[in-house]
Amino acid sequence: MTTMRDCSPPILLLGESYHNADMYYKTGFLAPDRFVYICKDDEERILVSQMEYERAKNESRVKQVHSLEEYGYTEKLRTVKDPDVALADTLAAMLSSLKVKTVRVPKDFPLLMGDMLRARGVEVVPASKLFEEARSVKSPDEIEKIKKAQAVNEKAMARALGIIKKSKARNGTLYYGGRQLTSEFLQREIEMEFISNGYDANDTIVASGPRSADPHFAGEGAIKENEPIVIDIFPYGKKDRYFADMTRTVVKGTPSPDIRKMYDAVLEAQNLALNAIRAGITGKQVNDLVCDYFEKQGYGTIRTKSVDGFIHSTGHGVGLEIHEHPSVGEAGIEPLKPGQVVTVEPGLYRPGVGGVRIEDMVVVTEDGNVNLTKFPKKLVI
Fold first, then answer.
1. What is the spatial distance between Cα 168 and Cα 224, in angstroms, rounded to a whole number?
2. What pLDDT sits at residue 42?
3. What is the layout of strands, in order, in the sheet containing 173-176?
4. Is the pTM of this model over 0.90?
5. Which EC class is this protein assigned (predicted)?
6. pLDDT score recorded for residue 2
7. For residue 169, which of 207, 225, 226, 222 has the smallest C-alpha distance?
8. d(Cα 174, Cα 250) in Å, to the nearest integer?
9. Which residues contact 83 (CB under 8 A, 6 or more apart)?
């Protein structure tokens, strides 16, 4: 919850809440059009259009709901004939009524609005980490929402792997239902599972063959036997907005010795990280353990500035955004805290050969962690 100390100087947010995670986190109000959140001392307010006023009163966590019309928005718009200018005038009027002369804003606050508020006598102070720490430590309710997303995630993964398992090889290419099995087909199947359960996803990854060596290549074209298939899926709730994240790497057929060796190394590195994560250790320390192990196995790492091998961090926070604080990598210099949800996703990548990544999602506890990912890890299916 926001405290008096948190809101001094006052905090101002402006945006829609489908994509602005801070706005949804503070208000609990899901709206496609921009609205205003302000916190002064221990009081929170939102300022919405007249169209959203009644819904905001019923749905927002913030109890003080105001309409733009209370501060003359439409009248101002008729005069200035520019919605941004009219909104700046309206905001300035509201801030003046609250005797607010200085506001802190997040790093993604609209530059134009910041300049217009300054021109109206408001001191606008950018603050890069307004809610980062608070959002990183999940409440029991937030953890339940992430668990629900992960349950759907595992249903989608099972659907995809079931199709791969049933596929048949012809001249090295996999076929399913009489047609070539493609990345695009599997992506659609995964996303259909999400949609049917009230979830959605962006940029579902089903990358196969040598191009799976690019960690964020979404995948395209026919899938072949005996080659790695990296499936990285991260749905979010269409209503509650919380994400889950999971990756599995599989082969239909016989993996090459290189891929088998990489898989075994990645699985061992993940186990090392899972055993290390607890409150008090830093994300960087966990990442260093993974890098140490890979380097001893003869693989390059991001630490050695290698262009192949382990070329990303071990993990990241998950919540209202798919990538959020804390980092389980070089940037993770602060101790992990109980209640933080992080991924553990070491990977190895060799251009011309392919990639292997295995990803679980855990809740940090005082003496270890709880793995929210129940899906099995098996290379050959």
1. 10
2. 85
3. 168-170, 173-176, 179-180
4. yes
5. hydrolase
6. 46
7. 225
8. 14
9. 77
Q: What is the pLDDT of residue 6?
A: 77
**Strand pairing category for 43-48 and 64-67:** parallel
With tokens 């992430």, the residue in question is: 146
Q: Which one-letter amino acid corresponds to residue 85? A: V
Which fold does the domain 137-371 belong to in CATH? Creatine Amidinohydrolase (3.90.230)
Cβ atoms of 278 and 365 within 8 Å: the answer is yes
- Residues of the chain with pLDDT below 70 are 1-5
* Rounded Cα–Cα distance for residues 251 and 278 (Å): 32
Task: Find out whether 228 and 244 touch, Cβ atoms under 8 Å.
Answer: no
Q: From 93, 75, 81, select the one nearest 36 (Cα to Cα).
A: 93
The pLDDT of residue 1: 45
User: Which pLDDT belongs to residue 4?
Assistant: 41
Say how many residues make up the chain.
381
List the structure tokens of 140. Answer: 């029991």
Cβ neighbours for 47, distance < 8 A, ≥ 6 positions apart: 35, 36, 37, 38, 66, 67, 68, 71, 90, 91, 94
Encoded tokens for 356: 């292997």
In the chain, what are the domain boundaries? 11-134, 137-371
* Residue of 199, 203, 241, 202 whose CA lies nearest to 21: 241
